[in-house]
Amino acid sequence: MKKKILKNMEWSILICCILLLAIGMVALFSATHNTEYDELKKQIQWVTISIPIMIFLIIIDYNILVKISPFIYGIGIIALIAVLFTEDINGATSWFQLGSFSIQPAEFAKIFSVLLFAYVIVKFQKRGREEINKFWKLGVSILVMAVPVALIIMQPDYGTAGAFLFAIAFVLFIAGIKARYIIACALIIVIAVPLLYFYVLPEHAKQRIDIFLNPESDARGAGYNIIQSKLAIGAGQLWGMGILKGNQTQLGYLYPKTTDFIFSVIGEEMGFIASSAVIILYVIIITKIIYIAKTAKDDTGSYIAMGIAGIFAFHMIENIGMTMGLLPITGIPLPFVSYGGSSMLTNFACIGILLSISGRRQKSIFVE
């Protein structure tokens, strides 16, 4: 690898990710204490697999990935269709079961969709950045993301679908989308939300929203998890109750504590200081990703970086927000912290692509 590429890389992103991973491993150690550390051991295995993939993606020019993105996208869509015919787990057909491991194609869909999304927009903008504001070109671009979103909603997995929406918004914003589309989208959302709630959403999704608004209405049922999560975070106070000493974590009241509510484990056992550090690390990562987008050598790299920034931003806001009772529970993992092989692979792959973009950057492409 050229020295120039290594010098230009935004290493601070990787450092922040490693710190998050370390905090997550400590939390997983505590959360799996009573189960012989099964998930912790698997997490270590997934990290071991993910690191070489990240290194490979750093070495390869991201434009090569973009060129083959239509092919990768096609394979991904086939996987998203195929997973719909698998046996449901916890009410969703989201995983391929491979022995003791499970693969979630929706996680990988984030990467190939963002790559193709960037590819299509750049193609349309060859005659000028304003081309994206032509209605049919904008529609085709959004369709690239809409297809996997529709398939993911069919699983159903509304949380992961939300990450795609953030990616779309982040990319289109810097692609130069006109204000009229933003206003129209805002109006559509205002009109669509109540209609979706009353006529489209299944009962379990409505229940999550109702419980979010009033968890005490079913404290021993649907509202149980969020109440326990808030109790755990509050009990940690400034410095935490100590590793292996959290009441909600160790007595089994917090569930699922290794995935959705891992931040609650951190809050209870490591306290406000560690929880704040986690949030600060994510803010640094997202800020640095936006800087990579600003300094990318071409529009393609900028759009890919912003798409990834949107994904990370959604995961941070939604996961931490739901553990505090500020947002509805959607089952979204916390990047580099929550247990999950598909999530870990996807996150490291994203970092690899980001470092590839930053290593090859030259100048800002943002329009003044």
SSE diagram, text form:
Elements lengths: L2 H6 L2 H21 L6 H22 L2 H6 L1 H14 L13 E3 L2 E3 L1 H20 L10 H19 L4 H18 L3 H22 L2 H11 L10 H13 L10 H4 L11 H34 L3 H25 L17 H19 L9
Antiparallel strand pairs: 1-2
Helix pairs in contact: 2-13, 3-15, 5-6, 6-7, 6-8, 6-14, 6-15, 7-8, 8-14, 11-13, 13-14, 14-15
Features:
368 residues, mainly alpha, disordered C terminus, 15 helices, two-stranded antiparallel sheet
Question: What percent of residues adopt helix (DSSP H or I)?
Answer: 55-70%
Quaternary state of the chains: single chain
Strand order of the largest sheet: 1-2
Intertermini distance: 33 Å
Write the element-wise H/E pattern from the N-terminal end onward: HHHHHEEHHHHHHHHHH
How many H/I helices?
15
Class by SSE composition: mainly alpha
Query: What is the count of β-strands?
Result: 2
Number of domains: 1
Task: Walk me through this protein's architecture.
This protein is mainly α and 368 residues long. The chain has one domain (3-359). It contains 15 helices and 2 strands. The chain has helices at 3-8, 11-31, 38-59, 62-67, 69-82, 105-124, 135-153, 158-175, 179-200, 203-213, 224-236, 247-250, 262-295, 299-323, 341-359; strands at residues 96-98, 101-103. The chain has a two-stranded antiparallel sheet. Strand 1 and strand 2 (101-103) form a beta hairpin. The chain is globular, with a radius of gyration of 21 Å.
